[in-house]
Amino acid sequence: MPHPLLLRLLWVLVMQWQISSAQLSDQVLESWKKYDNECKLNMSLVPPPTDLVCNRTFDKFACWPDTLPNTTVNMSCPWYLPWYKKVQHGFVYKICGPDGHWQPKVNGQLNRDARECERDINDQNPQFHKPDNS
User: Fold this and answer.
1) Within a domain: 125
2) Signal sequence span per UniProt (predicted)?
């Protein structure tokens, strides 16, 4: 029969992990909200375009500027990602079509390429990032 002290220690570790996981989720959500608000504020400060463009937008992942038709725009990986330090030099890409509309979803796939911003699932030691932004 397992030792009662060992069981208690295991229980404490499991509870600590659950609390840490919940705290991380809360931190990510708060960081995402700050990113969203910062994006919307920045968009509101820029006058509306007079030419045909794909409109500035926040697509729930990244903040996109007004973009000329037939252009692929890149933005830095968003700083709210918990693994941002590992992808901070990466980019997410989005295509503005010839008609001034963002490229639509194709076969249910998202209309952006965020592969450079994804966490390496093989990384055994993820270094989670707490944004410096306030």
Assistant:
1) no
2) 1-22
